[in-house]
Amino acid sequence: MKKIIINISLFSALLIAGCTKNFDDINTDPTKASASNFDPNLLLPSGELGYLSATTGYSGPILFQSMWVQTFASAIYPGYYSNGDKYVFGGSYLSYQQSTWNNAYNAASYLYEVQNLTKDKPELSNLSGIALIVELLNIEAVTDTYGDCPFSQALQAKAGITAPVYDAQQDVYNSMLSKLDSVISTLDASKATPTNDALPYKGDIAKWKKFGYSLMLRMAMRLTKADAATAKQYAEKAYAGGTFASNDDNAYILYDLSDGFTNSNTNALKTTEDYSEVKWGKALIDYLKSTDDPRLSVIAEVPQTGTTNAANQSLAGNSDPSVQVGMPNGYDQNGGSTDISKEPNYPGVAAADPAISGDKPNVTGKYSRPKTALYLSQNAPAFILTYAQTEFLLAEAAARGWNVGATATQHYANAIAASLQTYSTYNSTGNISASTATAYAASHPLDVSSMEASLKQINTEYWVLESTIFDFSEAWSNWRRSGYPVLTPVNYTGNFSNATIPRRQAYPTGEASTNPANYKAAVSGLSNGDTYTSRVWWDK
Amino acid sequence: MRKLQLFVFLLLLNVAAMAQTKQVTGTVTDSKTGTPLASVTVRVKGKNVLSVADANGNFTIAMPAGSTTLEFDYIGYAAKEVEVPEGTSTLSVTMDQSANNATPEVVVTALGISKEARKLGYATTTVSGDQMNKARETNVALSLEGQVAGLNVHGTNGGPGGSARILLRGISSLGGGGTPLFVINGVPMDNSQRGSAGEWGGSDNGDGIGNLNPDDIESMTVLKGLSASALYGARAANGVILITTKSGKKGKMTVDYNANYVVDQAINNTDFQYVYGQGTGGTKPATASASLATARFAWGAKMDGSSFTGWNGQAATYSPYKDNIKDFYRLGPSFTNTVSVSGGSESGNYRLSLSNLDNNAIVQNSGLTRRTVDLSIDQKVTSKLDITVSANYIDQQDKNPPQLSDGPGNPNNGLFLAPNIIEKTLAPGYDPTTGHEVVFSDDNYVTNPYFVVNQWINDVDRKRLISSISAKYNFNSWIYLMGRMGYDHQNDRYLGITPTGTDYSYNSAGQSGSINLSNVQTSELNLDAILGITHKLTNDINLDATLGANARRNQSESIGISGGPFVVPYLYTPYNVVSYGRSYGYNKREVHSGFYSLDFTYKNLLTLSTTGRYDAYSTLYYSEIPKSQRNLFTPSVSGSFLFGELLKSSVLNYGKLRASFAQTSGEGSPYQTAVYYNVGNSINGVPTGSFNSTLPNLFLKPFTLSEFEVGAELKFYNSRLGVDVSYFNRKSKNEIMNATISPATGYTGSVIANGSIQNKGFEILLTGVPVRTRNFTWNTSLNITTLKNEVLKTDAADNNLSLGTYRPLNANTAFVVGMAGPQIMAHDYTYDSKGNIVVDGSGLPIQGDLKPFGSVLPTLYGGFKNDFTYKNFDLSILIDYNFGNKILSATKYYALYRGLDKETLVGRDNGIKVDGVYQDGSANTTTVSAEAYYQRLASISKVNVLNGDYIKLRQITLGYTINPKMPVFSGIQVSLVARNLVTLMKHSDNIDPENGFSSLVNYAGIEGTSLPSVRSFGINVNFKFKN
Question: Nearest residue on chain B to A511, judged by CA atoms?
Fold first, then answer.
């Protein structure tokens, strides 16, 4: 009896412990795909959208860069726009500081994975190539914002690299340019095209080639200050390869509210506080007025009087160019010396609307705001790279005497005409007819009296375009590179940049703990340490 | 009032009953030596009338009429019953010293097997249910605070449904999360934490142990050492707490009714400055908009009682207001009613209890209701077959557990209002006509607290059945076979509503709000087969052997739907949204194990035990993982030596030495071994995809924990004085855990398998009975735990492993090799080579490197308990203490940043010239405003690291037992209770050092923007009914 029982028990023990045949199955997640059945095409749109997560909305650009380049202004202190308007930390500044880094690397990781998953699938070489191009776009966003950053060892945690070295920005740029050069040539219209492209290209290889060369041009021109030879080499190569030819080539993503994808710039600006607080900057409005730019009435409006009307997002404002007033940066409503009412050109209080009971006067109600009808749809497009941009860059290249086909004057005229016609991508509110655009371009030719005069005009217009299509990062980067337009920094108490316009973002705070040695090495190379006043390599 | 009358009536009855007694006096002596025995307990059989012999062994007791027998009880002597013949009023009683034959103290050990305490080679502590159900906590685990050496328990400031962080001998593993395994009547129960707050907010939705009704708990036994819990394998890595629920006793049916009423009151720990009012730049706000923007900034002018336009545009007075916490938080009463029926016979017993808890939190519109049914039946089917069934059904509804830590939906945002603002002016938080939230500050993501309590919804409902059925067949007196099935099933429903009107949620079409509805089903099934043998190998050597197998399956499935904004305002259904999303989660794991234990006992002097367990974990299986690293065998060995038996000392009446070594193994989570890809929403018809941002690991193998423990248990002077000491040294190896890695790697986290951590320390329990007289007894106990933790290895490169952070984001906790974990990593100043503080061009100090500033876990903690009984009164006082830990305080950050901290009074008028140097080395000459200085100072986050030491008067209970001679009741006990009465010592300004928004180890020691801690007072009344 005893033996039998022991035998039974032993047997059952072994049975239970030993029966692990289905354990592999149990430990396979039934809700997800594996590498063997997953379509790598699906990751391309995630990488494309990720780039815009890094460069739009509260991810830093609108709260930091939009006001550093004085596109916008906000006369509130304290508040989260003080980071941008006054270089004074406010809100969750550490989270804004790190968003571009986190989002861009996240996007790049999807694109890097596309390349991994297509390694042994030569038939998907176009997908792989385009993924690399978009990956480089994301890396550019990182390095332009922060400077030195992981690149050669980045995105390779799967291969065991969990503490990647920070590459010098010069190496990052050289590597990006040469990678771009070689990958664009592999794009082949006779092979399979990407099936999931969130850009309007819908996988069109010819358009992607143009995008590749246009990106190369933009990266090349970023180096004019730091390494003009490389800039020239790749700008000419890009032109020869074929950059954008018209606004039809523009790279942007149209958002899709019904599926939960919304424009982050819109999301920010439609927020109640932002809506009443964020105004066009004085520098921008003054410039548009000085050039009689037809865009002024397309992009700006002065809200109807009082605070209630101004907060009503369905109530259009006054778009008459003559009433538009830009707000200077660095003011508040706290009653002290920096109170907005004390700014030299203060347009006065917008009186309360007598028709609305309890309405209050609106202290900032006479300043121009971004026009609601144009910008504030959650389905609005977000721009990545446009034809007008590439023509401005080519105009500068030509002005520098580089071999980019047409003259600076011609490229500039193309750029101006295209600029004015960019806004129709938002909706019909943005329509400026081709004839108006070309006529304006013809009547406002490039000043070729000196190269400096040309550069000033080109880059100021570039700033106008990037500001008004809400590509704040690009406006800021190009301003840092070119020095145009000349902006007067704000000097507000407690600012974090010694009263200068910030020239880089500090690294994400997490880097000091997750990648300490490489982080420290990178910081040691910065003139002012890991601060907003140190400069990236190409901004020396 | 009615209750009071009843009470007085019963008291009178009791006095009347006392009159009908006869006095019996006598002497108790040792049967051999004739020495008088002091402190013998004398009791009237069947009554709760007792007396204690004095130093000369003399006693007096009042015997009620009709009683004929006295019971004598004394530690180290055999209990004795003596008949008192009619007419006799003096007695001479002798007692036999019988240490060996006295009923040995029995403890429940692993797998529900009872063993004699003195034979154990490891430390255990048992806490009886009585100690937890009077001064009760909604989460019963919190009642263990300060009661058990080695055990460190902290709740969250997340409301009544909140969870408990329970650490036994510190964090024994890096990734284990810390919580011990709870085993209820032999069957493991799920104690997962559901929902907790992090730096970005969230609510504490409670844990598993918090579901139990304290009235149903007979006792909790803490198995501390690994060898004690080795039979449970992986999940015992953090220790085991065995819960025994109440069961019926042989005898007549008894009915028990317990009523408990406790009121929580918010404690204001703040000591802010009330000199300067709202504003910035030293000025009182001049306009309504400036007033609104500065509602949470106290950088204004000196408050002078003048009138100005307040945050809401209404006229206000610029003078201090100190009662916001008192105004905003209400008294939170909890009322628990439990009725139980129990009884038994020779062939079995039963107990059924029904309980209802109605709790109101200190936050309006928030609270908890819990209904429980507990059934236990034990039936002898035949003389050899015994079947037990237990079932515990819980229906718990946690209404609006508050959002913590971050701003949105958090009702505690009023804490940082400028000192002149009356929080009540924020009520009702919305515009009565439009329903739109009234924004009260510069940031609309910081929700108006009144809008939160009036409009936000966060409901967590749970229905849970913890059940077990077991059959035990005794082949004969020394061999049995037991089969057991335990099933723990939970059905949780979460409903979160960001209501219509929430300011930050508006879209351009004027629509707002969102809904998040989900349902989670979680279950755990355990099947056990155990063969037990007790055999006398020789006359002196006894063998207890157990052989068993366990199969465990955990499964969970969650389905969720979310959407927003609402099309029709205030209609909160998932249909009524502009756009919606869905979520689905599923995971499953199995563990198959075989185990044995062998105990050899020699002459009741020496016991040697060994256990072994072989585990196969499904979570470590994947086609690419080598078979050799999937399964593991882990052993334990322990021994005890009752050397006291050999000494026969008159001073030392009990002496035991024990030693043990044990190893257990652990696993990871499901699906950590492969890369998976997800398909996401389509944008304009183009489907998107993604993959998990946590990198999987193909090199996983079971991790191991090893522990060495030695201890001694000594009792002196007939157990009037006791000492129990343990030394333990525990080490983990190859730990599987998630590490935070730089997003530049392509992932934000990775599963690593290199971790190693060591914990060593002493546990000391001193017990004493300083006074024991006829009417008065004083029992005292002091428990002390010292702990030295060291992180030995993190990932392959020994990088710091980041854990949690707080909302200001400028510091975090991390595992740092060579230091105690989790360390607070905070920014120091920047110093030059001479150690001077470096300032920037504006004269403000520059944030420097991230450095370790101490561990968030204590190095010394414990409790000091004193119990007094005087006649029918009993008084119990518990003090607990905690030393050696640091706190990362967001409250400190905000108090500095917003000018609320008293520290910020310095330099207000004339500014501050930092004693430091510029970057070029020259002395600083710039004076900065206090506002600029303290806002910069707050970012040098080491200033936000506070000392976490405290001593608290944790609990007082005062009870009175009535033994009425009356119909209906056979006993009534009334207790007045109070918890968290006074903080006797602390060094952390403006906060309770125990404050925290999460009970997860990752967030231990991090606090900010959560509920104030509470003090509670109440009464517990227990009625035993006659039948």
Answer: B742
Q: Helices A43-55 and A93-117 sit at what angle, rounded to 10 degrees?
A: 160
Place of tokens 């920005």: A169
Closest CA to B715 of B763, B647, B638, B786: B647
Residue corresponding to tokens 């794991």? B589
Maximum C-alpha span of chain B: 103
pLDDT of B458 over the 90 cut: yes
Interface mutation vs chain A, best among B283, B439, B508, most A CBs within 10 Å: B508
What are phi and psi for residue B775, nearest 5 degrees?
-105, -15
Q: Which residues of A touch B677 (CB under 8 A)?
A: 32-35, 38, 42-43
**Taking the model in full, what pTM does it have?**
0.81
The pair of three-digit structure tokens given for residue B713, joined into one six-digit string = 């248990």
Question: Could you tell me the two tokens for B132?
Answer: 């937890």
Q: Give chain B's end-to-end CA distance (angstroms, integer).
A: 28
pLDDT tens digits for A40-55?
999 999 999 999 999 9
Of B506, B529, B695, nearest to A12 by CB-CB distance is B529
CA distance B808 to B805: 8
Each residue's pLDDT tens digit, A215-263: 999 999 999 999 999 999 999 999 999 999 999 999 999 999 888 899 9
State the alpha helices, DSSP H only, in A382-509.
Answer: 387-399, 408-420, 434-443, 451-468, 472-482
CB atoms near residue B918 (< 10 Å): 17
B656-695 residues touching A, CB cutoff 8 A: 670-671, 673-684, 686-691, 693, 695
Q: Are B420 and B318 in contact (CB under 8 A)?
A: yes
Task: Select from A14, A26, A27, A500 the residue whose CB has the most chain B CBs within 10 Å, as the one to mutate to test that interface.
Answer: A27
Does any CB of chain A come closer than 8 Å to the CB of residue B558?
no
Which candidate, B188, B195, B172, B340, places its Cα nearest to that of B257?
B340
Residue B864 is predicted with a pLDDT of 96
Reduce the DSSP state of residue A35 to 3 states and report it.
coil
Min Cα distance B436 → chain A (Å) is 11
Output the pLDDT for position B83: 83
- For A435-474, how does the pLDDT look when each residue is reduced to its tens digit (9 = 90+)? 999 999 999 999 999 999 999 999 999 999 999 999 999 9
- Nearest-10 crossing angle of helices A451-468, A282-290: 120
C-alpha to C-alpha distance for A528 and A521, rounded to whole angstroms: 14
Q: What is the mean pLDDT of residues B205-220?
A: 91
Please give the pLDDT value at position A16: 53
Give the number of residues written for chain A.
540
Q: Compute CA distances B783 → B106, B717, B886, whole Å.
A: 22, 20, 22
Q: Which residue has the tokens 């007096």?
A: B60
Q: Which A residues, 500 through 539, put their C-beta within 8 Å of a C-beta on chain B?
A: 508-516, 529, 531
- Closest residue to B742, CB basis, from A6, A336, A514: A514
Chain B hits for A259, CB-CB cut-off 8 Å, are: 579, 681-684
